[in-house]
Amino acid sequence: MRIADKVALVTGGASGIGLGTARRLVEEGARVVIADVDEDGGASAAAELGARFLPLDVRDPQAWQATTDRIVAGEGSLDIVHLNAGVLTPVAGKLGELGAQFDITQLLDEDYRRVTNVNVDGVVFGARAAVRAMAGRPGALVATASVAGVIPYGGDPLYAMTKHAVVGFVRSMAPLLQPRGITINAICPGVVETKISPSEAFDLVRSFGIDVMQPAQIADAVVQAVTSGETGQALVCVPNKAPSKPVFPELDITGRT
Ligand SMILES: NC(=O)c1ccc[n+]([C@@H]2O[C@H](COP(=O)([O-])OP(=O)(O)OC[C@H]3O[C@@H](n4cnc5c(N)ncnc54)[C@H](O)[C@@H]3O)[C@@H](O)[C@H]2O)c1
Q: Measured in angstroms, how far is the CA atom of residue 86 from the centroid of ligand 1?
């Protein structure tokens, strides 16, 4: 899908990867709506970019419907949706504790609910509202998963679970959306310097010899996902390389060979 003159919605667009994508989509000529729970950050990002801001908690299905209804009423259509808002699992109610090791015996119910509600419900409710809003017109959905959606990640197994869910959802939905002319792809970044973790966490990552990416690199992959026409892909983004596609096994489940 071409981006110029299209209407694009970016969740979690107040910060980090979402902000980078919103900026890039504006540069490509889209009319961009940023949606986020961070109302101050979202409003100032939108003002800076010449975009529109709508407050949205992606966990809330009614709010999703109201948001997409408002966009279609105000802009005439909804063509591109970046389902990007996401969080790490808080440890004992606290986010971003350096060196805190995941211990399932200490897991709080509310921490589990938070990461699954934002990272999984937010994508599913968002995809539903977006496909309804596309109403038979072509469209492009891109979900931000993670490399933790294709490889194990012991640092935060619940986060890894949610991102595997996103990749499985995208790959399973793609053939179902194809007859509607809607593509759906996942972006799977490695480490990107954003507000998802405290800055010391990125210093620590660098001290292990791992390069840290900037959001603009991930925005390039989102643009590739929207414009390539491909669907059902998981685009892995690692430093200093073009996005790559992991090879998923082709399994014969018939038991007959
Ligand atoms: N930074 C990384 O290293 C990295 C790597 C792989 C994947 N990701 C994924 O990228 C996405 C964006 O994260 P980021 O790194 O840019 O972090 P970030 O914290 O900078 O941005 C996330 C944005 O999402 C918003 N948000 C959080 N909960 C929300 C909710 N319930 N409803 C609406 N908005 C909500 C936040 O307010 C924030 O503006 C996430 O899905 C994250 O899992 C990040």
A: 4
What is the dihedral angle through the alpha carbons of 130, 133, 139, 142, rounded to the nearest 10 degrees?
-10
Distance 19 CA to ligand 1 centre (A): 10
199 C-alpha to center of ligand 1: Å? Answer: 15
Percent of residues in the chain assigned helix, strand, coil, to nearest 5: 45, 15, 40
Residue 83: which H helix or E strand, with range? Answer: strand 80-83
- Which residue has the least CA distance to atom 43 on ligand 1? 86
Catalytic residues, which ones? 159
Say which residues have a Cβ less than 8 Å from residue 105's Cβ, sequence separation at least 6.
Answer: none
- The full set of domains in the chain, from first to last, is 7-237 (3.40.50.720)
Q: Is 33 in the pocket of ligand 1 (CB under 6 A)?
A: no
Residue 221 Cβ inside 6 Å of ligand 1? The answer reads: no
Q: How many helices (H) and strands (E) does the chain have?
A: 8, 7
How much is the pTM? 0.97
**pLDDT digit string (tens) for 150-195?**
999 999 999 999 999 999 999 999 999 999 999 999 999 999 999 9
